[in-house]
Design goal:
single chain, 6-stranded antiparallel beta sheet
Length: 153
């Protein structure tokens, strides 16, 4: 009789454990993706040629998230994509800033599409080919300068 009880108890524990594992796995599969801010549509950047007017940019892209008037005027269209898995906090999976730079005449002089790649700011529309070489930190630059002999003395 006691053996039958322990067998049914272990069976209940196994069934309960399996149900708990199934509930946890199904909860992990429930992810929610949300887009905040400006939604950049495919081909939107190509609609804005260099030399376009400020009014044309607003008609094509809409009202900017924010503007800058220091120096020449710049329109910023800011967006952020987050994902949330079940009961966890949302985490940022993509962050973008589309910057439209104007000259003094109010015409587009440049466009930048910035985002984060591996924690570094990256321009997705960069028109400059990167050169081979090494990016040095400030410490490496200081140590490199200290290791070189001075020319004056």
């Amino acid at each position: 009789m006691a053996a039958a009880r322990s067998g049914s108890a272990s069976r209940l524990v196994r069934i309960g454990g399996a149900a708990l594992a199934l509930a946890l796995l199904s909860g992990c599969a429930l992810t929610e993706t949300q887009q905040h801010g400006y939604v950049l549509e495919e081909g939107a950047i190509e609609q804005i040629p260099i030399g376009s007017s400020r009014e044309y940019v607003q008609l094509a892209l809409g009202t900017p998230s924010t503007t800058s008037t220091i120096g020449s005027e710049t329109f910023y269209y800011i967006s952020q994509t987050t994902q949330r898995a079940a009961f966890l906090r949302p985490r940022v999976v993509d962050q973008r800033v589309l910057a439209v730079y104007f000259d003094q005449n109010g015409q587009v002089r440049d466009i930048g599409n910035y985002g984060l790649v591996n924690g570094r700011v990256f321009d997705f529309v960069d028109r400059v080919t990167p050169t081979g070489g090494q990016e040095l930190t400030i410490i490496a630059q200081l140590l490199g300068a200290a290791a070189r002999p001075s020319l004056g003395g």
